[in-house]
Hints:
alpha/beta
Amino acid sequence: MADEMVIKAQRFINEEFVPRNVGIAAVKEDGRTSWDLMYALTRCLQYEIGVAPLSDNFGPTTLSALGALHPRLNATTVGSERLCRIVQAALYCKGYDGGGIDGKWSTRVSTSVTNLKTDMGVEAVYPGDDLTPKVLKALLTMDPYVTVNGGTDRVRAVQRWLNGRYVDRADFFVVPCDGHHSRGVARSMLLAVQYELGMADGVANGVFGPGTRAGLKQKVLTTGAQGTWVRLLTAALILNQRAAEFTESFGPQLHAELRTFQDFCRLPVTGNGDFQTWASLLVSYGDQERRGTACDGVTKITPAIADTLKAAGIRYVGRYLTNPSATGLAEKAIQPGELATIASAGLNCFPIYQTYGRDEKSFSHIQGKAAGLAACNAASDHGFKDGTRIFFAVDFDAYDYQVTDHVIPHFQGIRDAMSLYRGRYQVGIYGPRNVCSRVGAAGLSSASFVCDMSSNFSGNYGYSLPADWAYDQISTITIGSGAGGIEIDNNVASGRDTGQNSFYPAARPVPDVWLSAQHTVALSMDLNTYMQSDGWAESDLTHLYSHSEAMQIVLDCDPAITDAASTHHMRKALIQTSLYWEMRHIDKIKDKLGDEGVITYHTRFQGPFVPRDASTGIGQIQGVTGILAWNHAVDNGRVTGPRYSSSDSDLFAMWQRLRGDNEFACRMIALVHLWGAAGKPGDAFTEKPMRPAALNYTEYEIYEILRRYQGPINSEASTEAQKRMPLYHLFERYNSLSR
Length: 739
């Protein structure tokens, strides 16, 4: 809802400062407080006190200049009417009475400033109605100073205490008092610890460094302790969502709460405020000298390495189901025979699925479906048994809105895809604390593998360890030597997930065979379910082929598809996916008119609006594409036969075969894929050559082949290829069952 006084504040900026052309942009007059509005007011303040150049950041220069000119703003010292109006506008934007934005520091303004400082917890440090530089800096942020959105009074009490005790220290600034733990509050806690350790301003930096660690090792608190250190310990517990009382007295209740927290984090359960407990309370990775009983890594586990892991106390080994790259980290994915080595050594393996996933673009509902199916296929091929939990990676610093807009839909897609596996595997998540907690709270994962050593991730800094954590990744270490040496990520295990110690025989990378009749009904149902989830009805009035009709053609052509795949050393699913997808997209009117136009051009009339070529047949391949792919195959010994020229007669001959011969069209899909892998030589959109077709294509290579079949990169083909990936994995699932 629009606030009339916020509109007046916005209008004040636009009318008073924007026309001066000093670097203050107009703000939207919508009555809503925003960062853009606070940045504009910050620039207005800088202009008024002579700071240049203007900046959105209220940094040291602004703070110093403000302190020199106005160490205490009040009715007597404000001086400039315009400066007063800036303060009044800021008060309204923060939800306080600004007295009308009239340039008069009235009793209403004084009362609001007093209330603001009380809400912040700094009223004892800055008594009265004076507005000090640090308080004004805080006023020009979006930070709330009352509980909002489910914030708790307990957390707010900690926030107000921190402000009141440390606000006068050089590098401590007012933190929000909204009842929520956050990155800023977490840093303020570290500063508070450093101040209490005796660090001077400029030395205390909010970083959990050697000095802080050494100091905390000397601050072991036990029952009966009193004072500020107990207050800090209980504050840290409260910020970690523990049921501690905010107190200066170490009594039985605190002892019990510490034991509960230590047990939850799998720390030694002492009930004391020892170093490892402090570390786990203050930073996501805790004490990095801890040795966990789990690890993960990108190196094959050999018998020698397995011995090293066992000697180091490792019980659970995380390994990757697939490797998105054909060239990098050659041993990232589980290698042939590796699971047998792990099992024979008495170790357990938990599987991780990760492609690239380094930004939000890698996460969507459709990509989640592809990930779920790909992971299930890979887990099955490796021999993981029913009930295995697969940890799907979110390996980037996802902000909360990105979790909402991208990660949650992605895991909904994973859920939908894995339901097609009839609940054979469980879903876990690897990622920052907030991401894991939110996905778990949405019911989309059953356990978390937390990337806590990425301590600066916004999703870790200021968030508690998820309640469902299974593995806590806290450091990277190297253990062993020689053939037994290995670099691993050191993980603490909670026991919530234990991986697997026995496996089915792994699938061999053998060529595909004909689809088994016992699987065709299930395949058809799963394909139709997926297409319907993407908005495709079983049939409609616009497209030529219904699902059933397209599926029947795929089955009718299975001998030709199988032969082409075997001949060219590729997976049948590449051919089946392109064939099925193109058939479902053939438009009854547009594509029919295209075909009739080409026939007209080559048999009756060649005019400016009559097409010489068009996509045709069940594979929707243009004549020129067919010629280029065919000639490439001839030149490379893939097929035998004459080359085609670019003449009208050869073009039309190829086009007619693509249109009228379904078996030939299926074989040509395979040749178009080979041509695409070679970079489409001769095409208007040549691309970088890929690895030749192989039975062990990576996820990225599969995506690239499907994308190149449809069109150039950064076109509609890129988006559509994401939608085809789940189809590929569905076909691959049933092909593998038939092998």
